[in-house]
Each structure stands twice: as C-alpha cells, then as structure tokens.
Predict the structure.
Amino acid sequence: MNKKISSKIAFNSGDFVVYPAHGVGKVADITKQKIAGSELELIVVNFDKDKMTLRIPMAKAETTGLRRISASDTMDEALGVLKGKARVKKVMWSRRAQEYENKINSGNPVAVAEVIRDLYRSENLAEQSYSERQIYEQALDRLANEYAVCQNISSADATKKLLEILAK
C-alpha cells in the first residue's frame, strides 16, 4: 500500500522517518482505523532495533515531531559540531543530564551532535560515570542511525565515521 497523503509533509510507506523520542524508523504503512467511533488516518512506523511499532495519527504527525531524514546540509552541520571543542557548563550533573536528554529527544541532529561532542571522552581522558556513558551512547546511536540512512551505509560504519571525526 504505497499512497501519498494530503498533509504538509507527505509520508509514503517505505520512507525512513525520525520520531524524536525513538529515533529512526521506517514507515510500514498508512492506514485508516476506527478508534473510539471516529475514523483516523494513521502512519504506522516500525523501529526494528527496538522491535517496536508506533501508530501516529496523520493529524498529529507534525505536532509530535515526526519528520523526514535530515538533508545532507543539516547532517554536515551536525558533523561540523562534532569537530568543535566541548562546551561543558559548570552546573550540577542532574541539570546537565536533563538538558542533554531534552536535546536528544528534540530529534534535531545538530543538538544531538552537541551532546555527543560534550560527553565524548577519548581513551586517555578520565572515565565517564554510568549515566554520562548512557546518555552519550544514546545520542551517538541516534545520530549514527540517521547518518547511516542519510549516507546509505550501515549503522556500524556510520558510528565508526562519527568516532573518527570525534577523535581528531
């Protein structure tokens, strides 16, 4: 079932999309379903890595932040951020962690790259705390998955490329 939808952003089955709270997924289908007495047009998105399926009402797609994969210029900007110097604020870790989580869940690749840049530790630097490492890995995974789809390469290759940029 491959059809266009009349919305500001048209999604087709087979398209890769980014859902801010979960990362990169693939539109499996666009279907109509009767829910609570009214018929809704739903975008069915599969997240293979998490073994999860999400049904998003077409009318709410834009407000939930569902979007297409970033254009290459946005991805280049995110990669440019990775090359920058880490900017760690001198506030309590809990406040920074919350800011990092908000940036990751924004779905904006540039904001996610800022989190990666700020939390990156090379082999010869001090150890990260467990929560720092968790947030860093989540951000790296999100950006690598979107970069992989954007460049048409595997997630492992995308992660390797991002780590090479960080190591410079």
